[in-house]
Amino acid sequence: MNEEELLVLARRGDNAARTELVMRHGRRLFGLAAALLGGGDADVNDVVQETFLAAFDGGLKTFKGDASLATWLGGVLINRVRKLRRYRRSRPAGPMDGVGRQPAADRASPSPAARVELRIDVAAMLDTLPPEYREVIVLREWQQMSYAEMAATLGVPERTAETRLTRARRMLRQRFGGHA
Amino acid sequence: MADCQNPVRLDAYHDGELSPAERSHVETHLRECPSCAAELAAIRRTSAAFAGTAAREPSHEQLLRLAQSVRAESSDVRMLLRLFRGAAVAASVLLAGALAGAAYLSQRTKAAAHEAMVLDHVTIWSQSAALAADPVSDERQSEQRLALAQWIADDLLRGRQEER
Q1: CA gap B43, B45 in Å, rounded
Q2: Residues of B in contact with A119 (CB under 8 A)
Q3: Fewest CB within a 10 Å sphere: which of A24, A83, A111, B17?
């Protein structure tokens, strides 16, 4: 059964179809949400859940089938993350916000033993980027998306996605020198 | 690249987004432009910093919990919910109607009370005017004046109590 057919069934309340779609796309959406919000973020699960609920309970009207379902779900998730960020900016910072997210000054070669530390470093570097630049880095470097997929997910022209990626990489080099 | 007079799409080249003709053009340029060659090396280092550092993937159990959390209600539950929603809407309409009726009646009662009070005042003042225009015996006049004074005093007292 193709994804559009599964989607129609899921929208009608077919739980087997819903489970199938979650198993197909949940892993990637978890990764995307974790990368955009920070791996340990308690909101990651909520954002992924809201993305699926929007798709199953009403968001499907905006899915036109000209993008892949994966791309469309990614776009829905990114919008949710942006909303969450706006909400966070509107509230006062908590005492632990931003603690422990500074990149290490020196980093050893990326051996398996250092991988966890490396992930924290990279996440901390990403945290310093404005959201639109962080998004393109995550979509390209971690989600392995093509420029066309990035553009469809973000709802921007391909050249805009490419320009953002170029600038994002340059910002990382300027800020972290030899570390990025 | 900062010093290059003819910059090329180095990120697109690194990401494999160029056509064969464009790739060939960039490769020719790279052989002649040390600035762009250095820039490409920097892009590769930046990109490599992310290799193998993607966020940890969710477990199978986590995915199953997620699937459970987005399940639709069963058809029986959906029907019950629909019935409940229908009943709730009907009750809301009835309640709104009852409140509007009560508000209307309350307004009517207040208006009627006000009207009666005005009529009382008109009657009393008419009587006093008639008294002044048609003099009677001193004793009767005196009684009526006393009653009028008493009424005015009561009326003032009632007005002050209402203000409080």
Answers
A1: 5
A2: 53-55
A3: A111
Binned at pLDDT 50, 70 and 90, residue B163 comes out as low
Which of B9, B58, B72 is nearest residue A26 as measured by Cβ atoms? Answer: B58
- pLDDT > 70? residue A56: yes
The sign of the CA dihedral B78, B82, B87, B91 is positive
Provide the pLDDT for residue A59.
53
pTM listed for this prediction: 0.63
| Residue B143, C-beta contacts closer than 8 angstroms, at least 6 positions apart | none
User: CA B123 to CA B144: how far, in whole Å?
Assistant: 14
A180 vs B49, B71, B78: nearest CB: B49
Distance from CA of A115 to the nearest CA of B (A): 7
What tens digit of pLDDT does each residue of A146-176 get?
999 999 999 999 999 999 999 999 999 988 7
Count of CB pairs separated by less than 8 Å, A with B: 100
The whole-angstrom separation of Cα A148 and Cα B122 is 87
For residues A74 and B159, give the distance between their C-alpha atoms in angstroms, rounded to a whole number. 71
DSSP H stretches of helix in A12-42:
15-37
> What is the SS3 assignment for B8?
coil
ipTM, 2 dp: 0.75
Cβ atoms of B70 and A52 closer than 8 Å: yes
